[in-house]
Amino acid sequence: MYTGFAIFFSVLIFINLVGNTLVILAVSLNKAMRSPINYLLINLATADMIVALFIGIPFVVTPTLTHPEGKSGDILCKLFTGGNVGWVGALASVFTLVAVAIERYGAVLYPHSQKGKLTKTRLTILIATCWTLSALWAIPGFNAVTYISDIKSCGHSWSKPIYAHFYTVGWSVVAGVIPIGILGALYSRMVYHLWLRKDNIREATQKALKRHRKRVTKMVVVVTVIYVLCWVPELLIYFLGFTGTITLVGVHHTIASALIVFNSSVNPIVYSLQSSQFRKHLTDLICCKRNRVAPMSSNATASTGKRQDLEMEGEINMTRHPSQDVESVKVT
């Protein structure tokens, strides 16, 4: 059975590393793709690769190798096989999804406001905050992880049972209740604003911009729904494990961890299915093509982005920030 799980994890890890690397390259190598939301997607891809390397790989190598015990076993658990670094990446991934939702919320509901616009400085601070908070939250778990000979696996050894309960409930709140609550509230407002609210938009430019915002919002909503479906089982098992209802080893734990790795692997596929721009650039990378269009001035680039919103007739255009105003474009 565990050989089958090892093969499954290996496939997920391969898809994860290839897909997320392509996402990073697609944005980094194409100036037109360097928008705030795409930089957040780069951060999400980086976090997802860490999840694959430090949560997925232990499930591949552990069944085939003998884990050392004693001091060396404890160190190995803390640095690799215990998944500590992977959970930092997983939490950074969750926080990044919240950051993406906040960016979308500002772009959709307050497109002309400068207060909520993500500048380069704000974006840097936001990404740094995601990783800092994730690392700080992981410190107690890092200190508690040790190799437990009785179960022949890494686990948490707390000096007092109350600490285990606090940490377990904390994980459920920090990685589950709070993010899901924020995401649900923000996307509910956006869905109402984009799909349910009646408006009197008549200009073709504004209609095209609204179609664009709908499609980008739909893409990140799909990513968020997948996150919720994949994370809830893990958080539930983690909570029940520390309350003594079930053990944190066995098939159920392996399946829940596989869902976390699956969640970190599927995002590039979602981008490709939902975004024509991502699909084009990812295809170009796979086929070893490069965009050889000469760099344009900022004004020319903005004008091109505005025209593309009109010409693509519903195709997603990720080449510029969605909050840019296109009212000045004349439709002939």
UniProtKB/TrEMBL annotation:
Primary localization class, coarse: membrane
Domain G-protein coupled receptors family 1 profile: 19-271
Superkingdom of source: Eukaryota
Keywords of the record: G-protein coupled receptor, Membrane, Receptor, Transducer, Transmembrane, Transmembrane helix
Gene Ontology molecular function, alphabetical: G protein-coupled receptor activity
SMART domains membership: 7TM_GPCR_Srsx
Residues passing through the membrane, by range: 6-27, 39-61, 81-102, 123-142, 162-187, 219-240, 246-270
InterPro entries: GPCR_Rhodpsn (IPR000276), GPCR_Rhodpsn_7TM (IPR017452)
Region (Disordered): 297-317
Subcellular location: Membrane
Any one annotated GO CC term: membrane
Similarity field: Belongs to the G-protein coupled receptor 1 family.
Protein name in UniProt: Allatostatin-A receptor
